[in-house]
Amino acid sequence: MKAVILAGGLGTRLSEESHLRPKPMVEIGNLPIIVHIMKLFAFYGVKDFIICAGYKQQMIKEYFAHYFLYTNDITFHTSKNEKTILTNNDDDWNVTVVDTGLNTQTGGRIKRVAKYLDDGPFLLTYGDAVGDVNIDKLIEFHKRSNKLGTISVYNFGQSKGVVDINKKGDIAAFREKSDLDGDLINIGFMVMEKEVIDLIPGDSSPFEDTAIQELVKRKQLNGYLHNGFWQCMDTINEKKKLEELYMSGNAPWKVWKD
Fold it and tell me: Is 160:40 a contact under the CB 8 Å cutoff?
């Protein structure tokens, strides 16, 4: 199964960092946050990635073009223009970086990468949040539901995209952020059947306001309740919080071994 990561937005709420680079390339410790997300997926055997890039998309391409150099110890023999690789990381990934446009909405970005997806379900998440989501259990939960889409929901007490869910996991309503909204929020880490892409009208379509709303109407959206750790990186304070956890060795989302 392939994982699609939305990484094309401007990241204006984290302008202290995002004016220099795409928000998913902002580093937590020594790694961009998007790599933290990819390492989580890879821990569960998901190693084929499609990155929906946009703003400063060339920086994402350049990073993965040199990923082998960034993640290994190397001796450079300058007089011979040669190098000796001293280590070899375990990141056996296939990474497809697609320029999905500067102003394209989330749904439009997904629609643009449809040609690179296999038939059947795919994973989907945002490139600016980490969590210790059990991907195996998420996929199993989706398959058991026999529905077209599953989103992970979390009790965070913050106004993001909010869902109403019953004990079976059926989602009765999905709404974007409101000051009056309650506890369960959409945190990404989704599983979608490929036919969901047909519910996206075009580039100007936010995925949350088109495809997800249509799935709710059809009673085809399932909610996977995540009870562990999750944190987005919308502000510089949230970045600092994630970095402190990571550098202390107590990052809950770091399930992989170095």
Answer: no
Predicted confidence (pLDDT) per residue in 216-229, tens digit: 999 999 999 998 99
From CA 101, how far away is CA 24, in angstroms rounded?
A: 16
pLDDT in tens, 143-175: 999 999 999 999 865 555 667 777 778 887 776
What's the pTM value of the predicted model, to 2 decimals?
0.86
Rounded to the nearest angstrom, the gap between the alpha carbon of residue 173 and the centroid of all alpha carbons in its chain is 23
Q: What is the DSSP string of the chain?
A: -EEEEEE-S--GGGHHHHTTS-GGGSEETTEEHHHHHHHHHHHTT--EEEEEE-TTHHHHHHHHHTHHHHTS-EEEETTTTEEEE--------EEEEEE--SS--HHHHHHHTGGGSPSSEEEEEETTEEE---HHHHHHHHHHHT-SEEEEEEE--S-SSEEEE-TTSBEEEEE---TT--SEEE---EEEEGGGGGG--STT--TTTTHHHHHHHTT-EEEEE--S-EEE--SHHHHHHHHHHHHTT--TT--S--
pLDDT exceeds 50 at position 15: yes
pLDDT for the residue 67:
92
Q: Give the number of C-alpha atoms closer than 13 A to the C-alpha of residue 125, restricted to the C-beta side.
A: 28
- Torsion on CA atoms 178, 183, 188, 193, rounded to nearest 10: -100
